[in-house]
Design brief:
five-stranded antiparallel beta sheet, globular, 3 domains, about 500 residues, homodimer, alpha+beta, Uridine Diphospho-n-acetylenolpyruvylglucosamine Reductase, domain 2
């Protein structure tokens, strides 16, 4: 369910004694390193075809810890607990051993598909007693290699834990199992006039449990806030099988320490999330999207300030991208810009309850920014098809970037006023060695989120300047749709011959 | 900084070894009891005058743990660290030993007033080594007895830690010391066109550190969400003096476990919050308040549903109160209802960016609910003075309740559709033994929050039905303004002669 900060996500079971947990906790907090298999293992992003993905344990000098190996007796036990839902089929296992970016590969020989919390608990208790390593997996849409085994860990998939447990149509509280696919939950609540508080490109495949385990942000953060506020409760199974029931539906619950927060963003290292209680918002009646061109990044920032003041409560998204992003989506995906060429583009979404009011606010805002020269060109969409077309220009940048060559992607938080300096600095530093260095992302946060993507001329030759990268906030959210997986795999280049030290590849991958 | 779930807030230092901490944590999570001094100590609410407050250690059979007593050498050390900011003045100590409701009293002999995190760290490290107990204190506005010592703990006040450290006018991120008074922070950010994400009746006295330590909710929760989403970072000093720097300003930070969440709502039991980073929202340009009368609670709920649909993004508060609440504020505080008598009253606040749009939305909504009979009478205020007058009817119910007799107050979360049944059940159960049983609170949450207040005819004779009380969510938030403290103290009745067992008083107090 994601990649840990300083290296591979450890297998859950068998490492879960309190001292180890606390050591890992400290490692996370203090950035300490040197915990054996948990040492920092930077590596190249190498989108190769499935059959060519090198085993993680061959590519990196990671050592398997002394876990037991799965025996026939173990399989028999699993089969008793999960009749017909224990797989050792090599074809089925191939899919769960390789991450979506096809950069890491485990060699698990067992896939377990529980349907209930009780089954998860029985499996973990047994594995803990038998010293068998377990790797939890949701939709396997993560882009940082954390959702697949490193060695032969048992893959515990939440795919069959896909039941909605309850929905309160007055409060909008949805309680569901962890394996529910985000898009299916969205459809479920939208039929009831609500929307999920998060939306991601990967919604067609990603599981709500994985979203929570990786503390995914997504496109609705500006309006509906983070999962830390909208997730009301969790049910989690710990490594020894203990079920921690924090599945409250209270928005504010001060009856004890808020333990569930520890599991959000912990990426399966503390336990397996089995159920989620989440607060859905009333579905907005009207949505508008404006796509605008700006002459410079300073104007993008001023447009953002003006926008916050004039659109206020109806503003639901503010995204930006530079001209090179537009060139990439135009050339590789044959999308076309609806406006003339500009150094920067801005996508603004409004969501409100009154079409005329929203249109008036948007019109007044557009007049202001056009008159003041902050914006030189723009278009507005109100119907759903056109809105999706405009969103595609922003959402598919990642896909366009990966259409040829090797891609390094980072998800970085910086003060908005300094956000784009990083792209200029990296561009200047890399010079001719990179085909392109692009910047795009959200401005609707206290600090802007920059998706820095680059395509080097030669694979494996970048080394980031720690100063330039600054405070890196790696997103571990699964954020690519399943429908694009095939095309990306088809278009993927051959495995690179990395020019760096084999044991110390060259850059930490980020998410897009 | 609040009262713990199962009894007195423990002194921080000297109890802070990991096993004890984990025992207390489990106690909180599992509701387990029997940890010596941490046993459940229910008691009566007894608003008596200052000189009559019985010592907590005399009223309840709590035992002082074997902490050291403050010596002359200790005082000399404190004086070196905090020159001129160590008080042993009995008059000054009286104020910090007694809680605002005047129901519990400690007998601390030392008050320390650090100005910096480093000073807090030095004090805690020293006290930890010397085995001296410490009780942290913010604005001492809490209503559940948790902000004052139980025995002779050293009171560590955050009153002089009142500096704004930074404010980012683009993102709205405020970083300040824990002792900043909420109202002063509100004024500070409002001058910069932002508002604090929380508002409380006690804002004139309460400290932001105490707000966070008690995970205060308040009147803006519906629109701006809980502190779990808006608090971006914390700086905390642990019991051994270690400074935990989680003072990030990132809205989403996935670089490790979100440890700061553990301190939110932990009421000083895990450490002392010394600084807070909090996300402020853009100040709304227009605020309207409607005060409406409804014929029944069912109509209150339907008004709420209609309101959410028609006011949508501009809805910022939805409060209700019953007719007995109105009678109390009218008779005791000489406030007058602006509308005719109704079984229920609703206060709706809207906050938006366009006066005409908001007025139109509100008008359409009011026409709908009046035409459909959900609302039988109402008034709308747009200017600040009238808005404050309408809010006073709701905000001062607690004050009115405490004007005569003994008051038991609870802050309860229940599904909104069942919310008022509890008041009816309690009323029926208590019959003539209670002067009044009232219900009021927020509906703008997934589950409604009911403030249940009652005045028994005889003090100390109520025993709640566990079934009726259901899931009790005690608010430990300080939520009374300092300006009302004097009048309440003046009007307070004599100490009751509780008819219950002296060692097991009769009811757990809640907050209003």
């Amino acid at each position: 369910m994601g990649w840990r900060r300083n290296g591979h996500k450890p297998a859950l079971v068998g490492m879960a004694g309190p001292p180890t947990l606390w050591a890992r906790k400290l490692e996370k907090v203090c950035g300490a390193r040197g915990f054996g298999v948990f040492q920092r293992r930077d590596f190249c992003v190498t989108p190769t075809s499935a059959q060519e993905v090198m085993l993680t344990c061959e590519r990196y000098a990671v050592q398997r810890l002394p876990f037991a190996e799965v025996s026939e007796q173990d399989l028999a036990f699993f089969e008793r607990v999960l009749p017909g839902r224990v797989s050792t089929d090599p074809h089925e296992l191939k899919a769960v051993n390789i991450d979506w970016l096809k950069m890491v590969r485990g060699c698990s020989k067992v896939l377990l598909k529980p349907k209930t919390t009780s089954e998860v608990s029985q499996i973990l208790r047994y594995c803990n007693e038998r010293n068998l390593a377990v790797s939890p997996q949701g939709g396997n849409t993560g882009m940082v290699g954390g959702s697949v085994p490193v060695f032969d860990e048992i893959v515990l998939s939440t795919a069959l834990m896909n039941q909605v447990l309850s929905f309160n149509a007055i409060s909008g509280t949805l309680v569901c199992q962890a394996g529910c696919v985000l898009e299916q939950l969205s459809q479920y609540v939208e039929e009831r006039d609500f929307i999920m508080p998060l939306d991601l490109g990967a919604k067609g495949s990603c599981h709500i449990g994985g979203n929570v385990a990786t503390n995914a942000g997504g496109l609705r953060l500006l309006r509906y806030g983070s999962l830390r506020g909208t997730v009301l409760g969790l049910e989690v199974v710990l490594a020894d099988g203990l079920v921690l029931d924090c599945l409250t539906s209270l928005r504010k619950d001060n009856t004890g320490y808020d333990l569930k927060q520890l599991f959000m963003g912990s990426e399966g290292t503390l336990g397996i999330i089995t159920a989620v209680s989440i607060l859905c918002s009333q579905k907005p009646k009207v949505v508008n999207v404006a796509f605008l061109g700006c002459p410079g990044f300073s104007e993008v920032l001023q447009t953002f300030s003006t926008c916050k003041g004039m659109l206020g409560e109806i503003l639901s998204a503010f995204e930006f991208m530079d001209d090179r992003c537009m060139q990439l989506v135009e050339s590789h995906l044959r999308l076309s810009s609806p406006i003339k060429e500009n150094p920067f583009y801005v996508l603004i979404e409004t969501s409100g309850s009154d079409a005329r009011h929203d249109e008036e606010k948007l019109t007044n805002f557009l007049e202001r920014v056009m008159d003041s020269g902050l914006v030189t060109d723009g278009t507005v969409a109100t119907d759903n098809t056109k809105i999706k077309m405009l969103w595609a220009l922003r959402e598919r940048i990642t896909e366009a970037l990966s259409c040829d060559g090797y891609v390094y992607k980072y998800d970085i938080s910086l003060p908005v006023e300094k956000l784009y300096d990083l792209v200029l600095d990296i561009r200047s530093r890399l010079g001719e060695s990179a085909k392109s260095v692009v910047g795009y992302g959200h401005l609707g946060e206290p600090r802007g989120r920059l998706h820095l993507g680059g395509r080097p001329q030669l694979p494996g030759c970048w080394r980031p300047s720690p100063v330039a990268v600054g405070r890196q906030q790696r997103s571990v959210a699964p954020n690519r749709p399943a429908r694009r997986r095939t095309s990306s795999a088809t278009a993927s280049p051959p495995r690179p011959s990395c020019s760096c030290s084999a044991s110390r590849p060259c850059w930490t991958p980020g998410a897009s």
